């Protein structure tokens, strides 16, 4: 006789770049060997931030400069500890990106869980982990700011997958 008991906690993560649905690294969000990630809905940052596409691999970065740029659109997921550890490693945390807590305004909610820690507050704002960066190149501040990342957008800066980099 056996039964499965899940004792871990679920964390909320807001993704705004290549991990979103339809983007080049979304495959990692649905790969259960890396952990569990459950799509909850769409949101945007309460504060404005610069979202730039930088470097020779056209990587999206949210620069940790609150009050500058745009309200950034993205997706809210609940993730287990294993997926959070994978995301930390994938995002090069803490060197390339830092995982910080931000206030995210819920735009559309699909979350099926009725637990209070997962549901958005009546204000429609929730705290989520976000991978942004304070370790950016100074010249990135001069790049165009985006509000909704799409690798195949009109900017013409297609993301280069890790396996295709030199």
Automatic annotation (TrEMBL):
Top-level class of the enzyme under EC nomenclature: lyase
UniProt-listed Enzyme Commission number(s): 4.3.2.8
Active site residues per record: 91
Domain of life of the source: Eukaryota
GO biological process terms held by the UniProt record: modified amino acid catabolic process
Catalytic reactions on record: epsilon-(gamma-L-glutamyl)-L-lysine = 5-oxo-L-proline + L-lysine
Pfam family, one: GGACT
UniProt keyword list: Lyase
InterPro entries per record: AIG2-like_dom, GGACT, GGCT-like, GGCT-like_sf
One cellular component (GO) term of this entry: cytosol
Domain called Gamma-glutamylcyclotransferase AIG2-like: residue spans: 13-133
GO MF term set: gamma-glutamylaminecyclotransferase activity
Keyword Lyase attached: yes
Family membership: Belongs to the gamma-glutamylcyclotransferase family.
Function text: Catalyzes the formation of 5-oxo-L-proline from L-gamma-glutamyl-L-epsilon-lysine.
Cited PANTHER family: GAMMA-GLUTAMYLAMINECYCLOTRANSFERASE, TROPONIN C-AKIN-1 PROTEIN
Full protein name: Gamma-glutamylaminecyclotransferase
Gene that encodes the chain: GGACT
